[in-house]
Design brief:
Layout (H helix, E strand, L loop, with lengths): L8 H14 L7 H20 L3 H15 L3 H4 L1 H17 L3 H14 L3 H17 L3 H14 L14 H6 L8
Helix pairs in contact: 1-2, 2-3, 2-5, 3-5, 5-6, 5-7, 6-7, 7-8
Length: 174
Amino acid sequence: LRSSQPQSGNERLLVIVSHLNHGASVIETEDDRAKLAELNSKAAEHSLKKAAHKAALDYSAMGIQLLGPHGWQDQYALSHELHVAATRAAFLHGELEQSERYLNEIYACAQSPIDRVSAHISQIEIYLAQNQLTKATEVGWAALDDLGVPIMESLPTRISPQVISTLPRMTDAR
């Protein structure tokens, strides 16, 4: 034991959260359940960074379960965080249907376009991984539209490409 290396704080977190999760069924107060859900969120984030996708999926799913059916209403930010982690972890673990279910829940419950950005990004990554470039592009266009970013699909008819090519080079980065 003396020669073994001590665990890092994050590794200890994973061990502690795993043990607490085993006893989650006896947690009685919503506040304690929310605290354990927060720990699961941190454990999922750490697991994703370490490419432990199955563990990240398990931690995020447990966090979502701990928040219960009213998680989005009672703990919006934490529920959003857990669903984003679950989406990524499920996708990276090869559970595309499960990832899609988490994505749909984010789309349904997100309160603002900014909160939907993470879902759009994940959806684009999933389509790119499946070589569905047209669908990925469509999600990108939809995301920009959701954010209120106007995008022209074609050049205005009154300006020819030749005229555009003669315009001075832009210098203002804004």
